[in-house]
Design goal:
The structure holds 2 protein chains of 2 kinds. Chain A is mainly alpha-helical. Chain A contains 6 helices and 1 strand.
């Protein structure tokens, strides 16, 4: 896992940040080429929260006390999660 | 004495007693405390656990479902040095929340995996007991105002636009602004009691 992703994960585990903040930081930090690999490291409950977040996401979505996810990161994650093998799970 | 020294002397006499009493220090977006916080003797820095105890001892109510962390260096904007000159200094930060598809923010989104609402405190705040009291009171008061609104809603939610207005800068009388008034009030009381 990339260092920034690992850091976000540690902060989430520690309770410093909420699931939403973790997912945004995780998406923004993941390498575009390795989004698939990065998503493989997430536990099932967080993947479910991520699916819901990506479903809700709109470019004009407001995020308070932090930055929104990058649109390209959202697009990549959606593409990976929409792959037949994943979407059926 | 040089003329400029006289000017500085005059400024020092005037500012604490008069000017600062009548205007807010330019803080985050022009909203912030009116009282200037004093650093601890010798610059003694408190741990988060000590800070929570100091806040509680001095009358700050901290709900059981709240947890605090010292922010990592650079995680929150600005630093104490900018305090006196009115530069941006993000003393603490509550949980990030995002508006959902229906345009609303949900109370549940404020909680971490352990069922607590996390707040990060700027490390520079921990070098001043006065700052600790004011910042913790500010955050807890603002949270209490939000809690009331969310819990009055059947869906435990709030319109995203309203939420943004209450947390954003430059809206006199919003939750953020009122919470700084409360922070000043509690610190003034603490100072009176210590005299």
């Amino acid at each position: 896992m990339k260092l920034a992703c690992r850091k976000a994960w540690d902060h989430y585990q520690e309770g410093r940040i909420t699931a939403t903040e973790f997912l945004i930081k995780f998406l923004n930090a993941a390498d575009p080429e390795d989004v698939r690999e990065a998503l493989d490291t997430l536990p099932a409950d967080l993947l479910e929260i991520l699916r819901q977040f990506l479903k809700d996401y709109r470019p004009e979505m407001r995020v308070f006390r932090g930055s929104p996810p990058r649109a390209c990161a959202v697009k990549m994650a959606r593409a990976v999660l929409d792959e037949p093998a994943r979407s059926s799970s | 004495m040089h003329f400029w020294r006289l000017l500085i002397h005059a400024r020092d006499l005037l500012i604490p007693g008069r000017l600062l009493g009548s205007r807010r220090i330019a803080w985050i977006g022009g909203q912030g405390p009116r009282l200037r916080w004093r650093k601890n003797e010798g610059g003694r820095k408190r741990s988060i656990e000590e800070a929570v105890a100091i806040a509680r001892t001095n009358g700050v109510e901290i709900p059981e479902d709240v947890t605090f962390f010292e922010a990592e260096p650079g995680e929150l904007k600005g630093e104490w040095k900018g305090f006196r000159s009115g530069q941006r200094f993000e003393t603490a930060r509550g949980p990030l929340v995002a508006e959902e598809r229906d345009g609303r923010v949900y109370w549940q989104s404020h909680y971490n995996r352990e069922g607590k609402i996390p707040f990060r405190i700027h490390p520079d705040v921990l070098v001043s007991d006065e700052a600790i009291i004011a910042v913790f009171r500010h955050e807890m008061y603002e949270l209490s105002l939000f809690r009331k609104v969310f819990l009055q809603s059947k869906t435990r939610s709030m319109d995203g636009t309203d939420y943004g207005l209450q947390v954003s800068e430059g809206h006199p009388g919003n939750f953020h602004d009122r919470a700084w008034d409360e922070a000043d009030r509690i610190l003034a009381r603490v100072r009176r009691q210590k005299r």
